Amino acid sequence: CKYRVRWYSKGKSYLPPKELYDVAIKAIESRPLTISALLRPGGKKATETPTLEILCRALASASTTLTQGYTNPKPGQDKPVSPPKTNTKPDEGKLPPPPSSSFSMPLFSAFPMGRNPCRDGPRGAAKADCLKSKANPCATAKVKPCAKSPLPTKPPPPSEIKASVSPTTAKAPPQTSPSDVDHKDSSGSAKKKEKTCSQAPPSKPQEAKIINGRCKPKKQCDSPFPVLPLKQSLASYLSSIEPLLTAEELEKEQKVTKKFADNEGHDLQQLLEEEAEHCSNWLTPRWTRAAYLGYQAPLTVFSKFSETTDFLTFTAKAIYGICEFKQLVDQNKIPVVKMGKNDLDNSQFYKIFGTIRRPGRFCDTLQQFSDADYVVVVHKNNYYKLPIYCESGKLLNVPSLVDALQEIIDCPIGKGEPYGLLTHDNRSNWAEAYAALSCPHGNADTVETIEQSLFLVCLDEWGEERIVQAHQLLHGGGLRQNSANRWMDKTIQLIVNPNGLAGFCYEHSPADCQPLAMLMDFVQQKVNEENYGGESSEPQKDVSSTLLKFQATNECINLWMCQAMRNIHRIASQLQMNVFQFECHGKCFIKAQGLNTDSYIQLALGLAYYSVHEKIPAQYESAHLRIFIEGRTEAIRSTSNESKAFVLAMQSETASRHEQLVALQRAVDAHERLTKEAITGQGIDRHLFGLQQMALENGMPSPEFFQSKGFVRSVSFQLFTSQVATSHESFMAYGPLLSDGYGCCYNPQEDKIIFAISAWKNSPQISPFKYGTAIKKSLNAMRRLILETGGDPVGEHPCKCEEIRP
């Protein structure tokens, strides 16, 4: 046998379940290869040649603690090498693991595959503690026992799986636009599937299904995503890490990089180039799975409501506006934006409506329901199905929507059970709870109705401070506020609070932020129109919503609920947010100096970090790749030798004003060059990510290069930043990438710059408030430098700026 899988229920040698499952698929589908397994249930030896179903049953019934990592046995080697021992006991005092870095892909698992949450309780939760509370009336209800969790998704038939990435065996697929969304209509039936990329187990992304039932974009960009020459990327990599390392560390990193280029790097480059020949974008399906299934990115917009009717009218107009925007998307009326001579790809606009991220044991999946004719409204943890179209197929007008929302607000039913909290939990925990919650004899119909809605509308209860309002969009504010009034798997959640808060919580696995930014601008413009959506050429009947009922849940769900409560409380209490406006000037002042606005702000962020922490940070900024088919993002490594020189010049007491100005101009030019390289496919991070994935997908050991000090430091971004520019006063916020880093998103307006900074409380040196103050000081220092060296004061607000002393 080429593949030998050894399974010990009590031993030290093992394969993690994901790898075992993938090896099984590859062996069974790649006939005439066979696979044998040594199963030791209960310590008794039993040998058989299993089918995939038998293997899956063995995985599901295993009762050992599984951790990551294993070493494939060499030919003739009988026993796999045991991986390092790891302590799998959770630390109650720590935060849940933050999103992984750009290149690491840990498989987070909450508990062993065979763990029975009804018997053992969820990992990290004491069963006795969870069962003390009797507040949930469902806890004592007589219900059916927990059903076994569903097995992993059945793989495609052998004809659709490539056993090798070799060009001699892999055939080029049809030239169709790939999609990361499993597309279904409102009835739940799957549309026709077309292959878009070759697939070589064990760890490749799942086959994608194209979106049918809609008009194709006006003009689809036809540029495939390239694979850069290895020599070029490694040279740029060494240049990017130079400002972060000492001379001795840099010399060592150069040796490691050269060794990688001459050995594993050459082989991985060939594999990646072969893969790129068979699909239009080798990056997007891999990057979607690795990076975008980790966090939610909310955008917010503020207004004020004096009465409940204003609150409901605003909500109705927003619903109407979102639906109108969807009609523009379906009718191909979203303008194609040009960048130079290139058309930007608009495919992401088709992926944000009716999309759900379903939890999975090892990896989540995306499904889209394109024909949804209703939204789900959540109020006081109760879910209501609200139709949005009348019998003629036209949108319900705003007065009809207001009446329906008023009916929901006036519903005498009390607070519902907080099932929405489950969607906030660790994805592995939620996957297990989901299997029990949505079982056929339970609440499958209710869950399905929520998932197949066009989007969610969350009518929250009153909240106070503006900083707290930012938390409302990220996680709902915690247990005592609105966290349960959510369903975090939906791509779009419109959140409206009577205190005037309105915004979106955006699960951005299927698409980046450009579609939502355009949607938000469109909606905000429309809701300010006095009679928007109020006129109709035909009489419309009264519309009533339908309460979606959850049946009494069993002990299994209650235990998962207990764990979810603990986790959301921990996250909500540890996350810090600082949202503020820098009002001295905006992009008008920066442009008047002949400087690039984004580069200028990036330098201010780096200067502020140094002034607080006295070290040069690894600084990340996201850049779009929309000039390529299905393009997502690339990293701009904003830290450069030029930016470091600028920071040191500004901190120097001996540098002249002229020297500081020259350093500023050089740093801006360097960042502009890095930005241009990133958005034209010449960035290095996604290329290195692709090489790392080739090693993973082909069962090769991870090269030393990816564990080197320089590489790890360069991808451990203390500053994780992005610009989301909108025409209205709004901002975007997300959690920080590292426990000791910052998340920073900004929106440069003509006369101001809006910042949203996040950080965790677990590090006493990290404070979004100190950092926010430092950003203001850095921008003021840069402004003083420009004005004192003959700059143009146009666009500034003198009364809102620090006085420049002679």
UniProtKB/TrEMBL annotation:
A molecular function (GO) term: carnitine O-acetyltransferase activity
Location of region: Disordered: 66-108, 144-210
Ribonucleoprotein recorded as keyword: no
Any Gene Ontology CC annotation: peroxisome
UniProt keywords, alphabetically: Acyltransferase, Transferase
Record keyword Transferase present: yes
Domain of life assignment: Eukaryota
Assigned protein family: Belongs to the carnitine/choline acetyltransferase family.
Protein name: Choline/carnitine acyltransferase domain-containing protein
Organism field: Drosophila gunungcola
Species lineage: Eukaryota, Metazoa, Ecdysozoa, Arthropoda, Hexapoda
